Amino acid sequence: MNMQVYKYTHKHSETCVLDVGCGNGSAIRLYAGKNFQTIARGSGTLHYVGLDLDSKEINKANEAWASGRYAKKISCLFYVQDITASLVVGPRTQHVIWCMETIEHVPLTKAPLVLALMYEALHPDGRLILSTPAPLGTELVWPDSHDHEFNRHETELMLREAGFKIEDMWGVGCNMRHAKKLLTPERLDMYNKLRLRINPHVAGTVMQALYPEMADDLLWVCTKR
C-alpha cells in the first residue's frame, strides 16, 4: 500500500484536482471534457490525483488512463491509499477536492479525520464537492455496503467542525416512497402532475433538485472559512 506523502509542487498555471475515493477513475472523464471550466479558462494544465483503497479499481483507472483517451492538458496519477492516514498531497494545494459516495465507507470514528485532511489539502480559494447518502428516517439507503450513513445533520455538523463553509447543497438521489411523506400537499400535487407529463423517475429527479430536504442522497459544495 502506498503510504508515502506525495510532494507535488504545482505550477501557477495548473489547476489541481484531488479525487478522494476515485474508484476506477471515471470522474477523470469530467475533467477531460473540452468544456471543463478550469481547462477552458486559459492555457494552463490540470493536474489530477486519484486515491482509492481498492488496488483492483486503481489498476482499472491506470489502464484507462494509459489508453490515451483523455485530453493532453491533463497530468494524472492514481494511488492505492488509506485516506484515513494521508491524502498524499501537500497542504493548501488542491483547487478542487472531489469526494463522491466515499465518506460513508469510512469507519465512523475516522470520518471527521478524513474531512480534516481534506480541509488541510484544499487551496484557500478551492472547493470541496462531496456527496453521500442521507437516509430519510431510520431506513438506510444501502444498508449492506456502508460503514455508516450520515444523515444531513451529521454531515453538516462534521463539515462545519472541520472548518468548511457550506455554500450549497443539492439533492441527487431520492426514494419517493419515503419522500412523499415529507411533501406538503402543494408539493405532492406538483409531483403527481409532473408524473403525468414526464417519466416518473425524471419527476423524482426534478423534485429532489427543487427540494433537497426530500432527497436521500446529497451533494455538498463547500469552501474554506
Task: Write a brief caption for the model.
With 225 residues, the protein is an alpha/beta fold. Helices cover 32% and strands 25% of the residues.
Number of H- or I-type helical stretches: 8
Order of helices and strands: EHHEHEEHEHEHHHE
Alpha-carbon distance between the two ends: 33 Å
Helix coverage percent of residues?
25-40%
Strands side by side in the biggest sheet:
3-2-1-4-5-7-6
| Rounded average pLDDT | 85
Q: What composes the largest sheet? A: 7 strands, mixed
Q: Structural class per helix/strand content? A: alpha/beta
Percent strand equals 25-35%
How would you describe the shape? globular
Q: In total, how many beta strands?
A: 7
Gyration radius, to the nearest Å? Answer: 19 Å
Low-confidence stretches: 1-6
Question: Would you give an account of this structure?
Answer:
The protein has helices at 28-32, 37-40, 55-66, 111-121, 152-162, 176-179, 185-197, 200-210; strands at 15-20, 46-52, 74-80, 94-100, 122-133, 164-173, 217-224. The chain is an alpha/beta fold and 225 residues long. The chain has a seven-stranded mixed beta sheet, sandwiched between helices. The two termini are 33 Å apart. Mean pLDDT is 85; it is low at 1-6.
Jot down its keywords.
disordered N terminus, alpha/beta, 225 residues, 7 strands
Give the SSE layout.
Elements (H helix, E strand, L loop, with lengths): L14 E6 L7 H5 L4 H4 L5 E7 L2 H12 L7 E7 L13 E7 L10 H11 E12 L18 H11 L1 E10 L2 H4 L5 H13 L2 H11 L6 E8 L1
Parallel strand pairs: 1-2, 1-4, 2-3, 4-5
Antiparallel strand pairs: 5-7, 6-7
